[in-house]
Amino acid sequence: MNFTFHRKRISGVLVVVPANERSFVEEMRNFNFPKGRSLKLKEVMGYDKRRIVEPGVCVSDLVLFGLQQLFEQGLLKREEIDALLLVTQTPDHFMPATSSLIQGRLGLKQDMLCLDINQACAGFVIGLMQAFMLLEQESVNKVVLVNADVLSRKASPKDRNIYPLIGDGAAITLIERDDKDSVIHASVKMDGSRAEALIIPAGGLRLPSSPETAQLEDVGDNNLRAKDHVFMDGSEIFNFVQTEVPPLIENLLARAGISSAEVDYFLCHQPNRFMLEKLADKLKVPYARMPNNVVEHFGNSGSVTIPTVMAYNLRERLLREQLQVCLAGFGGGLAWSAMLLRLGKLAFNNIIEYE
Amino acid sequence: MKSVAEILKGIRPEFDFSASNDFQADGMLDSFDMVTLVAALDKNYGISIQGTDIVPENFQNLQTIEVLLRRSGAKI
Fold first, then answer.
1. Are the CB atoms for A293 and A46 separated by under 8 Å?
2. Which CATH superfamily is domain A1-355 in?
3. B51 vs A282: CB contact, 8 Å cut-off?
4. Which of A107, A226, A232, A307 is deepest in the core (most CB within 10 A)?
Protein backbone atom coordinates (compact mmCIF):
# COMPACT_ATOMS: atom_id res chain seq x y z
CA MET A 1 0.00 0.00 0.00
CA ASN A 2 1.37 3.37 -1.04
CA PHE A 3 1.19 6.66 0.85
CA THR A 4 2.20 10.23 0.08
CA PHE A 5 2.56 12.97 2.68
CA HIS A 6 3.12 16.70 2.24
CA ARG A 7 4.72 19.34 4.47
CA LYS A 8 5.83 17.04 7.28
CA ARG A 9 9.26 16.66 8.83
CA ILE A 10 11.26 14.94 11.52
CA SER A 11 12.71 17.65 13.75
CA GLY A 12 14.69 15.67 16.35
CA VAL A 13 15.85 12.20 17.38
CA LEU A 14 16.94 11.01 20.81
CA VAL A 15 17.89 7.36 21.39
CA VAL A 16 18.06 5.89 24.89
CA VAL A 17 20.19 2.77 25.33
CA PRO A 18 20.70 0.86 28.61
CA ALA A 19 24.14 1.41 30.17
CA ASN A 20 24.37 -2.37 30.70
CA GLU A 21 26.63 -3.62 27.89
CA ARG A 22 27.00 -7.32 27.12
CA SER A 23 29.72 -8.94 25.05
CA PHE A 24 29.14 -11.81 22.64
CA VAL A 25 32.53 -13.35 23.47
CA GLU A 26 31.71 -13.40 27.19
CA GLU A 27 28.25 -14.84 26.59
CA MET A 28 29.38 -17.60 24.22
CA ARG A 29 29.69 -20.04 27.09
CA ASN A 30 25.88 -19.86 27.56
CA PHE A 31 25.45 -21.68 24.28
CA ASN A 32 26.06 -25.38 23.96
CA PHE A 33 28.10 -24.73 20.85
CA PRO A 34 31.80 -24.94 19.85
CA LYS A 35 33.74 -21.73 20.45
CA GLY A 36 35.31 -21.72 16.98
CA ARG A 37 31.96 -21.83 15.19
CA SER A 38 30.60 -19.07 17.44
CA LEU A 39 33.57 -16.86 16.57
CA LYS A 40 33.03 -17.42 12.85
CA LEU A 41 29.41 -16.42 13.34
CA LYS A 42 30.50 -13.29 15.21
CA GLU A 43 32.66 -12.26 12.28
CA VAL A 44 29.98 -12.78 9.62
CA MET A 45 26.92 -11.51 11.50
CA GLY A 46 28.63 -8.67 13.33
CA TYR A 47 27.67 -9.86 16.81
CA ASP A 48 29.83 -8.11 19.39
CA LYS A 49 28.49 -5.64 21.95
CA ARG A 50 24.85 -5.08 22.77
CA ARG A 51 22.85 -3.14 25.32
CA ILE A 52 20.17 -4.78 27.42
CA VAL A 53 18.16 -3.62 30.41
CA GLU A 54 18.74 -4.75 33.98
CA PRO A 55 16.02 -7.03 35.43
CA GLY A 56 12.80 -5.15 36.10
CA VAL A 57 13.38 -2.24 33.71
CA CYS A 58 10.38 -1.61 31.45
CA VAL A 59 9.74 0.32 28.25
CA SER A 60 8.16 3.23 30.15
CA ASP A 61 11.31 3.63 32.28
CA LEU A 62 13.51 4.15 29.21
CA VAL A 63 11.02 6.51 27.59
CA LEU A 64 10.54 8.62 30.72
CA PHE A 65 14.28 8.98 31.09
CA GLY A 66 14.60 10.25 27.51
CA LEU A 67 11.64 12.62 27.59
CA GLN A 68 12.76 14.12 30.91
CA GLN A 69 16.15 14.85 29.36
CA LEU A 70 14.46 16.66 26.48
CA PHE A 71 12.33 18.70 28.94
CA GLU A 72 15.35 19.58 31.09
CA GLN A 73 17.41 20.65 28.07
CA GLY A 74 14.55 22.81 26.75
CA LEU A 75 14.35 20.80 23.51
CA LEU A 76 10.70 19.94 24.14
CA LYS A 77 7.98 21.36 26.39
CA ARG A 78 5.46 19.12 28.12
CA GLU A 79 2.50 21.21 26.93
CA GLU A 80 3.66 21.00 23.29
CA ILE A 81 2.99 17.26 22.99
CA ASP A 82 -0.33 16.79 21.17
CA ALA A 83 0.10 13.08 20.55
CA LEU A 84 2.29 10.36 22.04
CA LEU A 85 2.57 7.32 19.80
CA LEU A 86 4.35 4.34 21.31
CA VAL A 87 5.42 1.51 19.03
CA THR A 88 6.32 -1.50 21.15
CA GLN A 89 5.96 -5.27 21.34
CA THR A 90 6.93 -5.39 25.00
CA PRO A 91 4.45 -3.16 26.88
CA ASP A 92 4.58 -2.72 30.65
CA HIS A 93 1.11 -4.31 30.99
CA PHE A 94 -1.66 -5.84 28.87
CA MET A 95 -3.71 -2.86 30.02
CA PRO A 96 -3.65 0.08 30.20
CA ALA A 97 -1.67 1.30 27.21
CA THR A 98 1.94 2.05 28.12
CA SER A 99 1.66 5.43 26.35
CA SER A 100 -1.06 6.35 28.89
CA LEU A 101 1.21 5.30 31.75
CA ILE A 102 3.96 7.53 30.36
CA GLN A 103 1.51 10.43 30.03
CA GLY A 104 0.47 9.97 33.64
CA ARG A 105 3.98 9.63 35.06
CA LEU A 106 5.14 12.74 33.19
CA GLY A 107 2.08 14.82 34.05
CA LEU A 108 1.30 15.61 30.41
CA LYS A 109 -1.86 17.54 29.48
CA GLN A 110 -5.22 15.77 29.10
CA ASP A 111 -5.92 17.40 25.76
CA MET A 112 -3.81 14.95 23.78
CA LEU A 113 -3.85 11.51 22.18
CA CYS A 114 -1.94 8.52 23.60
CA LEU A 115 -1.73 5.45 21.42
CA ASP A 116 0.14 2.15 21.62
CA ILE A 117 0.93 0.49 18.30
CA ASN A 118 1.92 -3.19 18.29
CA GLN A 119 4.49 -3.32 15.51
CA ALA A 120 7.97 -4.79 15.34
CA CYS A 121 10.92 -3.96 13.12
CA ALA A 122 8.78 -2.23 10.46
CA GLY A 123 7.40 0.00 13.21
CA PHE A 124 9.52 3.12 12.79
CA VAL A 125 8.14 3.86 9.32
CA ILE A 126 4.63 2.80 10.37
CA GLY A 127 4.83 5.11 13.40
CA LEU A 128 6.00 8.00 11.21
CA MET A 129 3.06 7.41 8.88
CA GLN A 130 0.63 7.59 11.81
CA ALA A 131 2.29 10.79 13.02
CA PHE A 132 2.04 12.41 9.58
CA MET A 133 -1.66 11.51 9.39
CA LEU A 134 -2.31 13.05 12.81
CA LEU A 135 -0.56 16.24 11.73
CA GLU A 136 -3.28 16.71 9.10
CA GLN A 137 -5.45 17.81 12.04
CA GLU A 138 -5.34 21.51 12.91
CA SER A 139 -5.30 20.68 16.62
CA VAL A 140 -2.13 18.62 16.30
CA ASN A 141 1.14 20.54 15.95
CA LYS A 142 3.70 18.27 17.53
CA VAL A 143 3.75 14.47 17.67
CA VAL A 144 6.16 12.47 19.78
CA LEU A 145 6.80 9.07 18.22
CA VAL A 146 8.39 6.63 20.62
CA ASN A 147 9.80 3.31 19.48
CA ALA A 148 10.81 1.17 22.43
CA ASP A 149 11.36 -2.48 23.28
CA VAL A 150 12.93 -4.60 26.01
CA LEU A 151 12.78 -7.89 24.15
CA SER A 152 15.88 -9.25 25.93
CA ARG A 153 13.53 -9.97 28.84
CA LYS A 154 11.65 -12.43 26.61
CA ALA A 155 14.66 -14.13 24.98
CA SER A 156 16.15 -17.40 26.18
CA PRO A 157 19.84 -17.00 27.16
CA LYS A 158 20.29 -20.56 25.87
CA ASP A 159 18.99 -19.80 22.37
CA ARG A 160 21.82 -18.74 20.07
CA ASN A 161 19.32 -18.15 17.25
CA ILE A 162 18.19 -14.95 18.88
CA TYR A 163 19.81 -14.14 22.25
CA PRO A 164 23.19 -12.85 20.96
CA LEU A 165 21.55 -10.33 18.67
CA ILE A 166 18.85 -8.83 20.89
CA GLY A 167 19.28 -5.28 22.14
CA ASP A 168 16.94 -3.06 24.16
CA GLY A 169 16.32 0.64 23.77
CA ALA A 170 13.97 3.51 23.08
CA ALA A 171 13.95 6.19 20.40
CA ILE A 172 12.07 9.46 20.73
CA THR A 173 11.35 11.16 17.41
CA LEU A 174 9.79 14.60 17.19
CA ILE A 175 7.53 15.17 14.18
CA GLU A 176 6.06 18.46 13.02
CA ARG A 177 4.65 20.24 9.99
CA ASP A 178 7.20 21.53 7.51
CA ASP A 179 7.07 25.13 6.25
CA LYS A 180 8.55 23.96 2.96
CA ASP A 181 6.53 22.01 0.41
CA SER A 182 8.23 18.71 1.20
CA VAL A 183 6.90 15.46 -0.24
CA ILE A 184 7.36 12.12 1.54
CA HIS A 185 6.63 8.81 -0.16
CA ALA A 186 6.03 5.61 1.81
CA SER A 187 5.02 2.00 1.20
CA VAL A 188 3.99 -0.71 3.59
CA LYS A 189 3.06 -4.37 3.13
CA MET A 190 1.84 -7.02 5.54
CA ASP A 191 1.53 -10.79 5.51
CA GLY A 192 -0.13 -12.20 8.61
CA SER A 193 -0.16 -15.69 7.11
CA ARG A 194 3.54 -15.87 8.04
CA ALA A 195 3.06 -14.40 11.54
CA GLU A 196 4.42 -17.46 13.34
CA ALA A 197 7.92 -16.94 11.93
CA LEU A 198 8.51 -14.42 14.72
CA ILE A 199 6.37 -14.98 17.78
CA ILE A 200 6.23 -15.26 21.57
CA PRO A 201 3.97 -18.33 21.75
CA ALA A 202 2.87 -18.05 25.41
CA GLY A 203 1.96 -15.25 27.77
CA GLY A 204 -1.11 -13.92 25.97
CA LEU A 205 -4.64 -15.23 26.37
CA ARG A 206 -4.29 -17.89 23.63
CA LEU A 207 -1.66 -19.69 25.70
CA PRO A 208 -1.33 -18.13 29.17
CA SER A 209 2.01 -18.39 30.96
CA SER A 210 2.26 -21.37 33.30
CA PRO A 211 4.99 -23.51 34.85
CA GLU A 212 4.82 -25.63 31.67
CA THR A 213 5.32 -22.69 29.29
CA ALA A 214 8.29 -21.53 31.39
CA GLN A 215 10.01 -24.90 30.99
CA LEU A 216 13.11 -24.86 28.76
CA GLU A 217 12.84 -27.33 25.87
CA ASP A 218 15.49 -28.69 23.54
CA VAL A 219 14.45 -27.14 20.22
CA GLY A 220 17.32 -28.57 18.16
CA ASP A 221 20.71 -27.24 17.09
CA ASN A 222 21.75 -27.30 20.79
CA ASN A 223 19.28 -24.51 21.63
CA LEU A 224 17.03 -24.40 24.69
CA ARG A 225 13.92 -22.24 24.69
CA ALA A 226 10.58 -22.03 26.54
CA LYS A 227 7.19 -21.12 25.07
CA ASP A 228 7.38 -17.92 27.13
CA HIS A 229 10.40 -16.90 25.05
CA VAL A 230 10.55 -15.19 21.69
CA PHE A 231 10.97 -17.56 18.75
CA MET A 232 12.41 -16.57 15.40
CA ASP A 233 12.59 -18.78 12.33
CA GLY A 234 15.87 -17.26 11.14
CA SER A 235 15.87 -18.87 7.70
CA GLU A 236 12.26 -17.86 7.00
CA ILE A 237 12.92 -14.27 8.09
CA PHE A 238 16.14 -14.07 6.07
CA ASN A 239 14.42 -15.26 2.90
CA PHE A 240 11.44 -13.00 3.53
CA VAL A 241 13.72 -9.95 3.74
CA GLN A 242 15.77 -10.84 0.67
CA THR A 243 12.64 -11.56 -1.39
CA GLU A 244 10.28 -8.77 -0.32
CA VAL A 245 12.38 -5.74 0.65
CA PRO A 246 14.32 -5.05 -2.60
CA PRO A 247 11.17 -4.72 -4.77
CA LEU A 248 9.50 -2.58 -2.09
CA ILE A 249 12.40 -0.13 -2.18
CA GLU A 250 12.77 -0.23 -5.98
CA ASN A 251 9.07 0.46 -6.48
CA LEU A 252 9.15 3.29 -3.95
CA LEU A 253 12.06 4.95 -5.75
CA ALA A 254 10.33 4.53 -9.11
CA ARG A 255 7.11 6.03 -7.80
CA ALA A 256 8.98 9.02 -6.37
CA GLY A 257 10.99 9.45 -9.58
CA ILE A 258 14.28 9.26 -7.67
CA SER A 259 17.20 7.08 -8.70
CA SER A 260 19.11 4.95 -6.22
CA ALA A 261 22.20 7.13 -6.83
CA GLU A 262 20.28 10.21 -5.65
CA VAL A 263 19.69 8.63 -2.24
CA ASP A 264 22.45 9.69 0.15
CA TYR A 265 21.76 6.88 2.64
CA PHE A 266 19.63 3.78 2.91
CA LEU A 267 18.86 3.60 6.62
CA CYS A 268 17.55 0.10 7.20
CA HIS A 269 16.48 -1.90 10.19
CA GLN A 270 19.58 -3.62 11.65
CA PRO A 271 19.07 -7.38 12.15
CA ASN A 272 22.68 -8.38 11.42
CA ARG A 273 25.56 -7.35 9.15
CA PHE A 274 25.26 -10.33 6.79
CA MET A 275 21.60 -9.72 5.98
CA LEU A 276 22.23 -6.03 5.28
CA GLU A 277 25.25 -6.73 3.07
CA LYS A 278 23.14 -9.13 1.00
CA LEU A 279 20.39 -6.52 0.78
CA ALA A 280 22.90 -3.87 -0.33
CA ASP A 281 24.37 -6.24 -2.95
CA LYS A 282 20.91 -6.97 -4.33
CA LEU A 283 20.06 -3.26 -4.56
CA LYS A 284 23.57 -2.48 -5.90
CA VAL A 285 24.14 0.03 -3.11
CA PRO A 286 27.68 0.46 -1.70
CA TYR A 287 27.93 -0.68 1.92
CA ALA A 288 29.00 2.85 2.93
CA ARG A 289 25.57 4.14 1.89
CA MET A 290 23.70 1.38 3.78
CA PRO A 291 25.21 1.37 7.30
CA ASN A 292 25.14 -2.04 9.00
CA ASN A 293 27.07 -1.43 12.23
CA VAL A 294 24.29 -0.94 14.79
CA VAL A 295 23.98 -4.61 15.71
CA GLU A 296 27.68 -4.83 16.65
CA HIS A 297 27.49 -1.85 19.01
CA PHE A 298 23.94 -2.02 20.38
CA GLY A 299 22.24 -5.22 19.22
CA ASN A 300 18.98 -5.49 17.32
CA SER A 301 16.43 -3.40 19.21
CA GLY A 302 13.52 -3.85 16.78
CA SER A 303 11.95 -0.61 15.58
CA VAL A 304 14.55 1.39 17.54
CA THR A 305 17.36 0.49 15.13
CA ILE A 306 16.57 2.95 12.31
CA PRO A 307 16.69 6.05 14.56
CA THR A 308 19.81 4.49 16.14
CA VAL A 309 21.46 4.38 12.70
CA MET A 310 20.59 8.06 12.28
CA ALA A 311 22.02 9.09 15.63
CA TYR A 312 25.07 6.81 15.61
CA ASN A 313 26.26 7.17 12.01
CA LEU A 314 24.95 10.56 10.92
CA ARG A 315 24.76 12.58 14.11
CA GLU A 316 26.75 15.65 13.03
CA ARG A 317 25.64 15.66 9.40
CA LEU A 318 21.95 15.56 10.24
CA LEU A 319 22.39 18.43 12.69
CA ARG A 320 23.85 20.72 10.04
CA GLU A 321 22.47 19.55 6.67
CA GLN A 322 19.61 17.86 4.90
CA LEU A 323 20.08 14.43 3.31
CA GLN A 324 17.93 12.37 0.98
CA VAL A 325 17.33 9.11 2.81
CA CYS A 326 15.41 5.92 2.24
CA LEU A 327 14.23 4.17 5.41
CA ALA A 328 13.31 0.48 5.38
CA GLY A 329 12.02 -1.73 8.19
CA PHE A 330 11.07 -5.41 8.08
CA GLY A 331 10.21 -8.13 10.55
CA GLY A 332 7.47 -9.46 12.82
CA GLY A 333 3.95 -9.49 11.50
CA LEU A 334 5.28 -10.13 8.97
CA ALA A 335 5.45 -6.49 7.94
CA TRP A 336 7.79 -4.51 5.71
CA SER A 337 7.87 -0.77 5.14
CA ALA A 338 9.91 1.89 3.37
CA MET A 339 9.91 5.67 3.25
CA LEU A 340 11.71 8.24 1.13
CA LEU A 341 12.24 11.66 2.68
CA ARG A 342 14.63 14.54 3.11
CA LEU A 343 16.01 14.30 6.64
CA GLY A 344 17.71 17.16 8.60
CA LYS A 345 18.56 19.71 9.81
CA LEU A 346 17.58 18.21 13.13
CA ALA A 347 17.37 20.19 16.37
CA PHE A 348 18.89 17.21 18.21
CA ASN A 349 20.21 13.79 17.19
CA ASN A 350 21.77 12.03 20.16
CA ILE A 351 22.25 8.74 21.96
CA ILE A 352 22.13 8.75 25.76
CA GLU A 353 22.54 6.01 28.35
CA TYR A 354 19.86 4.94 30.80
CA GLU A 355 21.35 4.13 34.21
CA MET B 1 42.02 -20.18 -4.21
CA LYS B 2 40.52 -22.86 -1.99
CA SER B 3 38.16 -25.56 -3.23
CA VAL B 4 34.59 -25.84 -1.93
CA ALA B 5 35.57 -29.01 -0.05
CA GLU B 6 38.46 -27.19 1.65
CA ILE B 7 36.19 -24.32 2.69
CA LEU B 8 33.64 -26.76 4.12
CA LYS B 9 36.40 -28.56 5.99
CA GLY B 10 37.42 -25.24 7.54
CA ILE B 11 33.88 -24.71 8.85
CA ARG B 12 33.13 -28.25 10.06
CA PRO B 13 36.48 -30.12 10.23
CA GLU B 14 34.87 -33.14 11.89
CA PHE B 15 32.97 -34.21 8.72
CA ASP B 16 33.93 -35.77 5.40
CA PHE B 17 31.77 -33.76 3.01
CA SER B 18 32.73 -35.80 -0.04
CA ALA B 19 31.02 -38.82 1.56
CA SER B 20 27.59 -37.17 1.89
CA ASN B 21 24.92 -36.46 -0.69
CA ASP B 22 22.72 -34.45 1.69
CA PHE B 23 24.58 -32.24 4.17
CA GLN B 24 21.43 -31.11 6.00
CA ALA B 25 19.87 -34.55 6.35
CA ASP B 26 23.21 -35.90 7.60
CA GLY B 27 23.43 -33.12 10.20
CA MET B 28 26.64 -31.67 8.78
CA LEU B 29 25.49 -28.13 7.94
CA ASP B 30 22.95 -26.05 9.89
CA SER B 31 21.54 -22.65 8.90
CA PHE B 32 24.31 -20.75 10.69
CA ASP B 33 26.98 -22.87 9.00
CA MET B 34 25.31 -22.00 5.70
CA VAL B 35 25.71 -18.28 6.44
CA THR B 36 29.37 -18.81 7.36
CA LEU B 37 29.85 -20.84 4.19
CA VAL B 38 28.26 -18.18 1.94
CA ALA B 39 30.49 -15.48 3.43
CA ALA B 40 33.55 -17.67 2.81
CA LEU B 41 32.49 -18.57 -0.76
CA ASP B 42 31.80 -14.90 -1.59
CA LYS B 43 35.26 -13.94 -0.39
CA ASN B 44 37.05 -16.88 -2.00
CA TYR B 45 35.47 -16.47 -5.46
CA GLY B 46 34.99 -12.69 -5.43
CA ILE B 47 31.23 -12.96 -5.90
CA SER B 48 28.05 -12.19 -3.96
CA ILE B 49 25.67 -15.13 -3.79
CA GLN B 50 22.18 -13.68 -3.91
CA GLY B 51 20.27 -13.65 -0.63
CA THR B 52 17.34 -15.44 -2.26
CA ASP B 53 19.69 -18.29 -3.22
CA ILE B 54 20.63 -18.99 0.40
CA VAL B 55 18.24 -21.93 0.79
CA PRO B 56 19.02 -25.50 1.90
CA GLU B 57 18.50 -27.08 -1.55
CA ASN B 58 21.42 -25.07 -2.95
CA PHE B 59 23.69 -26.40 -0.19
CA GLN B 60 22.65 -30.04 -0.29
CA ASN B 61 25.99 -31.43 -1.52
CA LEU B 62 29.19 -30.47 -3.35
CA GLN B 63 27.49 -30.64 -6.76
CA THR B 64 24.59 -28.30 -5.88
CA ILE B 65 27.03 -25.82 -4.34
CA GLU B 66 29.12 -25.83 -7.53
CA VAL B 67 26.00 -25.25 -9.65
CA LEU B 68 25.12 -22.29 -7.41
CA LEU B 69 28.65 -20.90 -7.63
CA ARG B 70 28.63 -20.99 -11.44
CA ARG B 71 25.21 -19.33 -11.51
CA SER B 72 26.57 -16.63 -9.18
CA GLY B 73 29.44 -15.88 -11.55
CA ALA B 74 32.26 -17.85 -9.94
CA LYS B 75 34.96 -19.24 -12.20
CA ILE B 76 35.50 -22.80 -11.00
1. yes
2. Thiolase/Chalcone synthase (3.40.47.10)
3. yes
4. A307
